[in-house]
Amino acid sequence: MYTVEEVAKLLDMHPRTIRRYIREGKLSAGKVGGEWRIREEELEMFTGQAVKVIHESAKRDIESFLSEHQPGEGEKYQVCSVIDCSIRQDEAARIAQQLIVFMNEDNPARGKAKFQYFYLEEEKKSRFVLWGKPSFVGRLLTAIGEMAEK
């Protein structure tokens, strides 16, 4: 089960957008303890519908990074890393959940890091796109490598 905030982070959307999707019936969710919770199956169905939009957005972000990127104030180096994984969707979702944990940690090394995850059904692979400081993105890559070895 995901919280609205976790889904928003995972899909690189604002939590208000996710709540609007719930209200409009586009994303099925239930309340637990007064907060919306989204089941993994519901998220997979929703993202399956939205994967092409997310994929195109990620492509534009990467192209922008490569052609226009200017490191922010106090940021000398920025990294954009694309990881393709030929693994089952449930395994990729487990990795994405762990990345959400890392992204939500109170860690000054994170800076303005972000990530996107989507499953490419027709290619049967998952794609993770990571942006941030080299040391933080390196930590995420190491975590993905360790989870892949399990």
UniProtKB/TrEMBL annotation:
Start and end residues of each HTH merR-type domain: 1-25
GO molecular function: DNA binding
GO biological process, alphabetically ordered: regulation of DNA-templated transcription
Gene3D superfamilies: 1.10.1660.10
Source taxon at top rank: Bacteria
InterPro entries documented for this protein: DNA-bd_dom_put_sf (IPR009061), HTH_17 (IPR041657), MerR-type_HTH_dom (IPR000551), SinI_DNA-bd (IPR010093)
SUPFAM superfamilies: Putative DNA-binding domain
Chain segments annotated as transmembrane: none
Name of the protein: Helix-turn-helix domain-containing protein
Organism: Paenibacillus oceani
